Amino acid sequence: MADFFKPLALALALGLAAPALAQDAAAPAATADAATAPETAIGETYVASTHGKWEMQCIRTEDGFDPCQLYQLLADADGNSVAEISLFALPPGQPAAAGATIVAPLETLLSQMVAISFDGGEPRRYPFTFCTSIGCVSRAGFTAEDIQKMKSGNTATMSLVPMVAPDQTVDVLISLDGFTAGYEAVNAANAASDAAAAAAATPAPGAPADAPTPRP
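and the corresponding C-alpha cells:
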C-alpha cells in the first residue's frame, strides 16, 4: 500500500495498536496501579485500564469524578499510525447508543467522509466536522445494533480517501479484541462517577438549607 498518510504525532506518545484477529470479551484488564502510576495534572488524560487492543482513558478532574472513554490508536497495513477512535455510551433516549470521535490525517479528502463497516457489512459514512494541527475530526453516532456488532464481531474497518489520490481508498482495521470488556468498564466507571457526583451535590439528611437571599 502506498504511504499516503504521515503518522500522527500522537502515535509517538501513545504507541501503536495493531489489529487483532478475534474478540476476547473475557480477557482480564490491565489496570493502572494508583500507587506507582505517575500523577496526572487536572485536565490531563490518563490510562485507567487496558482491555485487549482498547484503552480506557479518563480525564483527571478536580473533584475526582473523572469522565472516561474507550480508545484505540489505528494503523494501516504498513504499520503507520494513521487514525484514532474513541467512544462512550450516551444517555438513554438518544438517537444513538454511543458517540464516537474519529481523528483522521490532515491529508484526508474530507468530502468523501469516513466510512465504517463491521465484519464486511455495508459501510456507513460520517462527515468531518473540523480539523486541528493533529488531524481532522469526525463525530459519529453508533446505534445499539452497531454496538452489538462490535461486541460479537472480530473487526471493523475504517475507510479513508487520501487527498493526493482521490481514486483510492485506505482501509484501516479497528480491532474488536477486548471491546466488550472495555465498553462495560467505561460504562461502569462513568456511572459510578455520575452517582458519586450526584451524591456529593445532595445535602445530607438534617443538614440546614441555604438561607434565602434577602430581597433588596
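(Above: one complete record from the training split.) The chain has a mean pLDDT of 81.
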